[in-house]
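Before the break, one more example. Copy the sequence into your notebook; we will annotate it together after we see the structure.
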Amino acid sequence: MRPFAPLALGVVLALGCDRLLGIEDLPRAPGDAGGPPSTAIEYASKACATCANSQCASQRDACLADSACRGLYSRLAMCVVDDVKCRAAAERASGGADRSPAYLALDSCRRQSCVDDCYGSKGLLQAVNGACGCADAKCEAKTRACIQSGLGRTSVLGGCERLIACIAADPNPSEWVACTERYGRWAEYGPLVDCLKGTACASLVPQPDASPVETTCPLPTGELSCVRNFAYGTTANTSVTMKLGVFFLEGNKPAVGAKVTACRFGNCTACAPEAGAVAVVDAEGKATLQIPTPTGSYAGCLKVEPPAPDPDAGTTAKYLDMRVFTGRNISVNEDVLQTFLLTRDALEFYGALLDVKVDWDAHGHIIGALHDCIWNRAVGAQLEIDGADSTTVIAYLKTGLELSPDPKTTSYGGFAIANVPPGRHWITAKRDGQVLARLEVEVVAGQMTDANMYPERAP
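Here is what the structure looks like once it is written out:
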């Protein structure tokens, strides 16, 4: 279960790579006008030229002295304000110049000192989904924050914007991980997408009566377009370094000292460990596992054993063992999965809200989340579990174990299944009759299972 804000980039799916990053969007670089650096290239915006030449003169001169950086900057300078696609296309076609120190220094200065004149504070939502442009004005501050993400860190400045562009190139859970490894996880894109989701835009799809339909900006248009249409783990490695975040539900504090074991596939109950794949949670709440992947990737279960109560450290509660099912192949290094440890008291409290008596002796219990193609929470789905008995109850959650206001679907992607008989079970998620995801889990009486569910891959 991923408790942090929905990875929340489902907005990018409405456009493919060619549209968001296509070379056809590139302006042609004008010929060198000669003269001093301030007039050596042409600008689409006079305001941008004025700001860049006054605020970033030394960085500009260093870039213009480097042929690769100069070629990239001459194209960027011709991108009009708010044209995210143009900026992304220019960097993509730069042959690596976008990672050169000269360019990063200039880009950093412009994003910090000339963001409104050279980048703008709109256009990001319009770029990722043409039907979402009306949200630009409302979400202007959050768009600016995304464009300026990483201020003060030259090598990663603007990472939020670049992360969105990267994922748009091939939207599926594996690419989400790869792009996150490259650009990092940015707090700025969560609020931006939350703003987008809360903004009503007139539908661009013609209606029978020719009138537009007011609807939330159409994130669902492409959020599940990868179902049965992609393969997990396209990169094969002989081993992967995987970090699992482990936290106590109460207070969201790191579960320091918890032991995490990567179990061999199909052997979660007994948990025969992969060679050497055992780690202890550190002060940041991370367990770092070195998992051998002789088949190219790892797909299995992580057994989490809570630390013993330590009255001297202020921890007296006894937490339940947790088995975390990855739900997908892990073929590259990653630091994205997280789980919560719970006490019996906490689960019984939430069970009482549902008028459910939690049975600890004969049943196990499941928490989990249903994700879309790029790790946002998939909404509007119904869950089924085979092998249930008369006491089994499915509940849909908002955050943590907070109940969703919609008791019938995954309004926020999270779910809990109480009183599941021990053994193997298939959990199935459907929306409008279509199977979105299926996951086989192993349930142990008196213990917790964390089920991460992702779109079905290609057959």
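The CA atoms of residues 46 and 194 lie 34 Å apart. The chain is about 25% helix and 20% strand. Try to locate both features in your own notes.
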